[in-house]
Amino acid sequence: MGEQTKNSGSAPPGHAAADWTVPQNWSGYTADQHAMWDRLYAQQVKLLPSRVTPKFMQGLETLRLSESGIPDFDELSERLHKLTGWSVVAVPGLVPDDVFFEHMANRRFVAGNFIRTPEQMDYLQEPDVFHDVFGHVPLLANPVFADYMQAYGEGGLRAVGENAIHHLARLYWYTVEFGLIREDDDLKLYGAGIVSSRSESVFALDDPSPNRIGFDLRRLMRTNYRIDDYQQTYFVIDSFEDLLKQTLDTDFAPIYAELADGPDYQPADILPTDRVFTHGTQAWAKRGDAF
Ligand code: HBI
Ligand code: FE
Predict the structure, then answer these.
(1) E strand or H helix at 278, and its extent?
(2) Which atom of ligand 1 is nearest to the CA of 99?
């Protein structure tokens, strides 16, 4: 995921390198852990083909991610590097923001090397190897999305100096993690937090509860998000090209200054200026019982 933030400057755990990476230790996974990957993989590939952008399915295929156990990061990186120059490195869990951005700016995607337990099938807080590799890595095989991720890392490093991570993190959240894309007049999934979740893969696209509104960078960076439940609003991009172009063409420093004065929008707000695809009922958010 990308929701939590760790303070810059905290030290890596003893077994990690200065850049927080650890050996994946692929030979250390048990048969049960490989079987957990296979189970999650089979579940998602049943749901996704009609729902996700075809660019994601292409990435799964060209990277040969499959139902044959947790991928070996070195082999995966070799294939990915040939396509877009990205590689996948292992980390023990969440890393500080500046470390996260530094890796991304250098086309290294940090992935948790552990996998969820059967009790955590549907929800866990720290990003595991299934979320990170199945959810994030396929689109890193797409040249335009790969450039967007690097641009985000570079923007993140600048934001650290400008005390603006809080606002920039919303861009990651509402695109990389929970983004929707419009393709041939249909909405499709591309966010890693959605495509790695069985229930949100359906909810994000088919449920009448959430809002679905057009991507607008300034508006989005004013919008709070939920980390404890499904999103109440999903932002819809027109294309990866447009997302990349807007990110590269925008000077963020003046926007951060403008955003510092508020207002913040709540996750379910709809504004008169919004391009609305779905005006959600918010029935799910209002249901009353716990998630
Ligand atoms: N660390 N391992 C890991 N994975 C993330 O997604 C991550 C992180 N540290 C910080 C972070 N995300 C966020 O600050 C970004 O969402 C902006
Ligand atoms: Fe993530």
Answers:
(1) strand 276-278
(2) 9
